From TrEMBL:
<dbReference type="Pfam" id="PF09838">
    <property type="entry name" value="DUF2065"/>
</dbReference>
<feature type="transmembrane region" description="Helical">
    <location>
        <begin position="44"/>
        <end position="60"/>
    </location>
</feature>
<keyword id="KW-1133">Transmembrane helix</keyword>
<protein>
    <submittedName>
        <fullName>Membrane protein</fullName>
    </submittedName>
</protein>
<dbReference type="InterPro" id="IPR019201">
    <property type="entry name" value="DUF2065"/>
</dbReference>
<feature type="transmembrane region" description="Helical">
    <location>
        <begin position="6"/>
        <end position="23"/>
    </location>
</feature>
<keyword id="KW-0812">Transmembrane</keyword>
<keyword id="KW-0472">Membrane</keyword>
Length: 61
């Protein structure tokens, strides 16, 4: 179980690093725009992301 968690965490880090590696200026602009979004919208986006991840995970297991 711990090995799968490590693999999942490693894959997340790889995927998170692709955009800043390939498009650093676009990533910087995106982060700047994200700082202007209010907390409610960020929470809704985070909740939606978790929900989609949970649905995909339940479909795969």
């Amino acid at each position: 179980m711990l090995q799968y968690l490590g693999i999942a965490f490693s894959l997340m880090l790889i995927l998170e690093g692709v955009v800043p590696f390939m498009y650093p200026q676009r990533w910087r602009n995106m982060v700047t725009k994200l700082s202007e979004i209010d907390n409610r919208q960020l929470r809704l986006a985070g909740f939606g992301s978790m929900l989609v991840g949970l649905i995909i995970l339940s479909m795969l297991t």
